[in-house]
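From the shared-data thread, chain only:
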Amino acid sequence: MRPSNDLPVVYLCREAVDFRKGINGLAALVEAELELDPFSEQLFVFCNRRRNRVRILYWERNGFCLWHKRLERDRFHWPRREPGTVVKWTGQQLNWLLDGIDVLRMQPHARLHYRSVL
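Structure, as tokens:
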């Protein structure tokens, strides 16, 4: 369940988002603050203030989908210094981000290995 590397454009919300917002709140944020069309079948990517969680919102034919990833350690290398409220990336860049790679420096997070969640 990963985005395709072939996606031509992915929209990242540069500012941190309150993750108490669900699908409706994020869709409203896309329309009102980012001034983009949430029904455009594009991916809209958000991070929380601690930058250890990412949510991806997208419209798929007849409803919204929401994808969520939480890091157990480390933080996502979020492009906070870019101008504007939204940053355009490719699907490949998004997958690098999700893999823990700092896209600007091309340095990954350490791989973690666990045996149990308990």
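The longest strand covers residues 53-60.
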